Amino acid sequence: MGLFRGGDSGWWNDKRTAEQQLRESESRLRAVVETAVDGVILIDAFGLVEMFNPACESLFGYRADEVLGQNVKMLMPQPYEAEHDVYLRRYRHTGERRIIGIGREVAGRRKDGSVFPMELSVGEAQRDGRPVFAGIIRDISQRKQAEQSLRESEGRLRALVDTAVDGVILIDAVGTVQMFNPACEQLFGYRAEEVINRNVRMLMPEPYQSEHDGYLKQYRDDGVRRIIGIGREVAARRKNGSVFPMELSVGEATRGDQPVFVGIIRDISARKEAEAAREQLQQAQKMEAIGQLTGGIAHDFNNLMAVMLGNLELVLDRLPPTDDSADLIRTAIQSVERGAQLTQRLLAFSRTQTLKPRQIDVNHLITGMIPLVRLSLGEAVDIRMEFEADVWMTMIDAAQLENALLNLANNSRDAMPGKGRLTISTANIAVGPEAIPDGGAPPGEYVRVAVSDDGSGMAPDVLAHVFEPFFTTKEVGHGSGLGLSMVYGFVNQSHGFVTIDSAAGTGTSVNLYLPRMIAPATTDQHATESPTRRPAGRTWAILVVEDDAALRHLTTRMLQSLGHSVREVSDGPAALRALRQDPAVDLLYTDVILPGGQNGVDVAREARAMLPNLKVLFTSGYLEPQDRGATLDPDEELITKPARRRDIEAAIQRVMSRPA
After folding, report:
1. Residue 544 is inside which H or E element, if any?
2. Does 155 map to a domain?
3. Angstrom distance (rounded) from CA 315 to CA 271
4. Percent of the chain having pLDDT more than 70?
């Protein structure tokens, strides 16, 4: 009996353990159902509701006790309400499954009578030998609204494309036309059905026709954008064979997993005469006008780009190297830098700036500025490029080289009235001492950039004076006489030299010899972006003075991310008060142009009078702050906005490493 009682006790313990586990399992299941975001409803074989979770209460507006024991039809609008019992009855008699195990979209009815779309998934289980059905319900009202908005947007887009004044054309990744709007039909003389599903080359004259497939293939192979995202002037061919100039902007999108390209086309034939007239303006006056117009804008624009660039770098730091989003951030950083280069290029037209040499691939630089050269010279001048394939690198100020080439191209245009040919060539040249005029540069290896024309040329007596300031052969008011002298001074300052080959009636070739740069580093143009990490160096207490709030806060965050201790103020008087209250500052990082009656240079002078050991780093959105009434000493460092964080940190370490 003792053994029997012991065995009976073990069985009873096992049963209680099983019941406890069952209760715990049911409790966990209940917790999942009660906290589920989606509605969960349970009905028996006759449609009576046995479970109605809180999410269902929110969806339908009923309390659970109002629904439990009621037929689930109460939650259905017509025709679902009338059909539901028939479905269940048929299933009980035939076992036919019409909705069980299938997710589908239906409609639900709330307590207030309103109807909403929902996604319903129904599953079956057995309880005491009888079927029960569990429904998972998701409100898809927002999705439906989004789909409707998308359909309406597509309709509006189609109407916009069909009624657009400009031509709109869509091609796929291999150049096959997918869309050809009515404006394109007017421009080219083709009906849409004559063009769709044919290669877009049919609309191009030479050389565009021969080059187009190569551009697309190269883009598919290397992903380098040569025309995408760029507005440029090209030529197009009508059905009747006539050629007309057009302005083409190409954008990229994705359809499925394949790229498609959208071209916006504008006939600019009528605009050419006005452009030709504008090209007659005196070059110095044009540069001055651009400088005055863009100076203030460039400052604000550089501040905006600095905020974008800094935030992008901070975001990039937070992404792991394998995150696909990092490539998107790097692309955005490159776009901001291109915007900064554009601003600097515009300002460089109107004033001389301190040289900022960097390693340059001249082939790449010239290719990038050819659209600007074409715009400056007009359609009458045939522009050709003859590049050495593996041209050496050179250390040069890119903006000044572009300015020099534009000056030379404009001189060539003036020497070829009506029409002519301009050739820009590059070559690797080993130069001996006998080939260097005036002994101004050492013999050695140089990159030669030659700008040649077939214009009127120059007589020997003119050639002897071309580099002299203010010497010009142009009519009064049509030349400052500074163009070639600026080119000469820039190249010589860059440790190179200039020669000119010319004779009356045979054209002119201006040769810029730029010293070869021996370095394994990659160029800025081809450098692959990577997350910016702080260069090795000490950290400092820094006071930031910047009137633009967004840029000020960003600069503070960037410097803090590099380990520095940072305070920030918005103007000069506030900076001086901050230094008086707490002079424990190593570096004053200040914008040059400030509100409040004191510019950054004034603030720095007064701050140094208080704190003789204080170091100062200036920043500005202007290339030349002295043009805005603020003159820096030669040994003072200026960093131009927008600047990469690594460049800011390098400048800080340079300034702080100098003796007091």
Report:
1. strand 541-545
2. no
3. 44
4. 78
Beta carbons of 391 and 428 less than 8 angstroms apart: yes
3-state helix, strand, coil in the chain (%, to 5): 45, 25, 30
Q: Look at residue 33 in the predicted model and tell me its pLDDT.
A: 79
Q: Are 298 and 398 in the same domain?
A: yes
| Residue in the structure block whose two tokens are 């004559």 | 194
Task: Using pLDDT thresholds of 50, 70 and 90, give the confidence band for residue 617.
Answer: very high
What's the CA angle centered on 191, arms 190 and 193, to 5 degrees?
A: 120
Burial class (CB in 10 A: 0-12, 13-18, 19+), 283: buried
d(CA 15, CA 355): 89
The residues, any chain, with a CB within 8 Å of residue 350's CB and separated by 6 or more, are 287, 288, 290, 291, 292
| Residue span of the structural domain in which 467 resides | 285-515
Task: Evaluate if pTM is beyond 0.85.
Answer: no
DSSP label at residue 386: E
Kindly give the interhelix angle for 398-415 and 362-377, rounded to the nearest 10 degrees. 40
pLDDT higher at 620 or 603: 603
Read off the CATH number of the domain in which 120 is found.
3.30.450.20
Structural Rg of the chain based on CA atoms? 37
Q: Quote the CA–CA distance of 500 and 497 in Å, as a whole number.
A: 11
The CATH number of the domain where 569 resides is what?
A: 3.40.50.2300
CA distance 253 to 538: 46
Instruction: Write out the two tokens for 460.
Output: 């020997």
Task: Give the number of C-alpha atoms closer than 13 A to the C-alpha of residue 242, restricted to the C-beta side.
Answer: 10
